Structure formats: structure tokens, C-alpha cells
Amino acid sequence: MPLERFINQALSSWMRQVGPDSDIVLSSRIRLARNFEKYKFPTLFSHEEAKEIIANLEEVLNTADITKFGQMELLKINDLQPLQKLVLVEKHLISPLLAEDSPYGAVLLTENEEVSIMVNEEDHIRIQCLFPGLQLKEALEAANEIDDWLESRIQYAFDEKHGYLTSCPTNVGTGLRASVMMHLPGLILTQQMNRIIPAINQLGLVVRGIYGEGSEALGNIFQISNQITLGKSEEDICRDLKGVVSQLISQERSAREALRKTSNIQLEDRVFRSFGVLSNSRIIESKEAAKCLSDVQLGIDMGYITNMPKNMLTELMISTQPGFLQQYAGGPLRPHERDIRRAALIRERIKMETDKR
């Protein structure tokens, strides 16, 4: 499975699928943090220990396959170019921490990129499963199956009282981070999001931007995830998160319907102005592109635009990121050059769809 397979395609195979409530929920993710019992945590371990952990995982992969999920490819972070690492971050396959600060890190990827296992990041192992739409239960079942398979071959750091032991105390217990990526333009346009976020935080959940902690909510895309990992089961954490997400879906749909009833012509005008910008711009910065893509996706979901694919926002939000733009260009680009290429890529993608009809 060549590295180019993961680097050159903006959309992972799972992203092309339609999941439940996918007009609002772009993806569901489950991440499990685990550590080897006999090694120090990555914050303290030696380079030799880090190499041994990767070697142990390679041996596990060579002796048995997780046939349900297909072949896994091991990519060592030190073997990747900076642009290649950036692309994997932009596709949510590795974290910025693994890309920047883990000289002895690695990632295991399935061909459809539904499963990625980060090695020697903040913990020895971080199992991640990504599913389209609202599918927390399905993603958890997949992650648990991989976890059980690994635990039958690896001795985890586990305490009967505290659960799975992790580098960061906030992950102790289940080691679970469950999150959903949501497109919420209706709640932004009706100015409800600033009221909703504090209420979500009070429920033990956190609202972040598209790339997690410290990132912006570009394109009205928000990541909702749990903060509590100790004292609740994995099923309880996912059920509580799904309950809040279901309420957000209902509120977003109500906000969109309210906009249709009270500001229909203004909303339609906003959608087609943004479509015009994307169709004709020669230079466009990432924030403007994200805003316009959000408007166009809203127009697609509400039926104003009928000749564009349902996953337009997901595809172009990834393929117009700096890493992808430079990967396509074959080397580094200055910010102004990226803005030119971003505009050209979006124009070409829209033209490709309109030419089909």
C-alpha cells in the first residue's frame, strides 16, 4: 500500500459514504488511549524504548491480521517529508503533536483510512476510528474490536481501581475520547451558538474547532467531544454525547427552517453570492474560502443548489488546506501563491461538476 495512496487523495474512502444525519454531522470519531505496561510513558521514555514499542507493534502485525479492517500500513514519522505529515494532519489521520514532536512516532493506517493507530504520541498507542455521519456506537464497536485484538497480544498499563493508565490524567479510566464534527451554519446565522456553547460545557463536553484543541471553527464546523473519561463506561460516554448531538441537530434544523421562513430570499442570495465567489475568484484566502464553502454547503443541503455533490464542503475544506495545496504543487508555496492555487482548485472542481450536467 504506497504512501501516495494516503497523501494524494483528499477524500478518504469513508468520507464518500453517506451516514445518518450527514447533512449536519460530518463524522463521528472514537479514540482510545492505551500504553504498554513495561515502558515509561512517552513524556519520559528513552529513544530505545520508543523504537522497541514500534518493533513490538510491527511484530504483532506480521503475525496476525485484523481481517475485518483489511491490511494495515505502518508509516514512520521520521520517514515522512514535512508536507506529507501536514497532509496527514489535515485529513485527521495523525495529530499535530505526532507530526511535530514525535521523532520516534508512527501511524498504522487501513486502506480506507477509517482506522488509524498513532504510536508514541502522548501515549504509546491511540486507536482512532472515523465513521461518516452520526455513528458513535458503530465507531466504538470498531475501536473496541481493534483494542481487544491488541490487548490479547500486548500487556496494557491497567489499574483495577483507575482503569487504563495514560500520560495525561484527564484520559485515565476508559481512555476514551468520543467526538463528532458538525456543520452548524444555521445556529451561527441565527446567533444562537454563543448561548449554546456554555450550556454544552456545563454538561462535561467541550466545543472546539475543526482541528481540535486550539483551532478555529472554520466554515462553521465544530467538534463536540467528551471531557470526562473516569467514572463512566464507554457506552455511557457515547450515549451522553449522542444525546447532546441529537439536540444540536434538532436545533440546527429548526434554525435553518426559521431562516427559510423569515429570510428566504436573503439566505438564497447569500448562498449564490458565495457560489459566485468560489466559481470566479482568482485569489482566495482560507478563511474566506471556508465561509463561502459553508454557505454553498448550506445551499446544497437546503435545496437551493442542486448540481453539486453532497460532500462538497468536506472535500474542499481538506483539499484547500496548505498541505494539500503544496503537495499538489510539488513543493512549498508562499501564502499568496497558495491563495491563487486555492482559487484555481475550487473553480476547477465546480466546473467539473457543472460540465457533467
TrEMBL record:
This is Protein-arginine kinase. Catalyzes the specific phosphorylation of arginine residues in a large number of proteins. Is part of the bacterial stress response system. Protein arginine phosphorylation has a physiologically important role and is involved in the regulation of many critical cellular processes, such as protein homeostasis, motility, competence, and stringent and stress responses, by regulating gene expression and protein activity. GO terms for cellular component: extracellular space. CDD domains: bacterial_phosphagen_kinase. Pfam families: ATP-gua_Ptrans. Keywords: Allosteric enzyme, ATP-binding, Kinase, Nucleotide-binding, Transferase. It catalyses: L-arginyl-[protein] + ATP = N(omega)-phospho-L-arginyl-[protein] + ADP + H(+). ATP binds at residues 27-31, 92, 126, 177-181, 208-213. It comes from the Bacteria. GO terms for molecular function: ATP binding; creatine kinase activity; protein arginine kinase activity.
